[in-house]
Amino acid sequence: MKVLVATEKPFAAVAVNGIREAVEKGGLELALLEKYTEKAQLLDAVKDADAIIIRSDKVDAEVLDAAKQLKIVVRAGAGYDNVDLEAATAHNVCVMNTPGQNSNAVAELALGLMVYGARNLYNGTSGTELKGKKLGIHAYGNVGRNVARIAKGFGMEIYAYDAFCPSEVIEADGVKPVASAEELYKTCQYISLHIPATKETKNSIGHALLSSMPKGAVLINTARKEVINEPELVKVLEERPDFKYLTDIMPGNHAELAEKFAARYFSTPKKMGAQTAEANINAGIAAANQIVDFLKNGNRKFQVNK
Ligand code: 3PG
């Protein structure tokens, strides 16, 4: 049986070696489609795949139609908004993610962006320090927890809001839980976003929340661009010369933001939060092992289209 690694943004070579080893040890064959530029290449590569490992690569109904032998798709990472779960279920394809495997990498980048913001995008002017500043973590999952752990080392005062995580869990980490997103944004100068892109969260971060942030507000986004209401973000940046937006996911209106707010806006050219050898090894090999365990033993532990 064939396992296809289809990654428009490839894993580090060392991770691919690890994936190959895990796949071959499981008696399966590995095929690679890296840095593809056309959907047609993906449609062709999936034809004889029994399993696929992806990153942010889009798996929609057309891909699933083309993949006649497909039994499982594993998103090597956390967010699976790039996979059409309904279509996968209709095609009897199991979809999994690899929760937690790349979260430290994303959290380290979030803190890196915070330092970059505090030091005025390294433009040589006098900046500020993170020590003693209030940080609001929006969603306390695997990445949020790692952000809290690292931010403690910087001496930040840490708050978190998560509609699905019990307060006691947040408190146990020495982080202050708050009752609503509104309270989090009103309280914290720094906000680090870790919400997934869902029907409920898309466009949910807009003028009301952002304009309520304290003076010197910095919004860090290592989650998804879709959760931001982009026109309203522009409005906030226009109204508040003290507001900074630093993101790892290039917004749809990047050109406008870069032109109008160059001193207070930054985006990485390509999402790179999880782009470390360690995260690639962890998530990639976890994905390979989950596929082997599913195909051999029927283990569905990490299935997300239940
Ligand atoms: C994730 O959801 O795991 C992160 O956003 C990383 O995505 P990537 O694998 O496309 O870098």
Automatic annotation (TrEMBL):
GO molecular function terms listed in the Swiss-Prot or TrEMBL record: NAD binding; oxidoreductase activity, acting on the CH-OH group of donors, NAD or NADP as acceptor
InterPro entries: D-isomer_2_OHA_DH_cat_dom, D-isomer_DH_NAD-bd, NAD(P)-bd_dom_sf
CDD domains: PGDH_like_3
Domain D-isomer specific 2-hydroxyacid dehydrogenase catalytic: from-to ranges: 22-305
Domain (D-isomer specific 2-hydroxyacid dehydrogenase NAD-binding): residue spans on this chain: 123-254
Similarity field: Belongs to the D-isomer specific 2-hydroxyacid dehydrogenase family.
Name listed for the protein in its UniProt record: 3-phosphoglycerate dehydrogenase
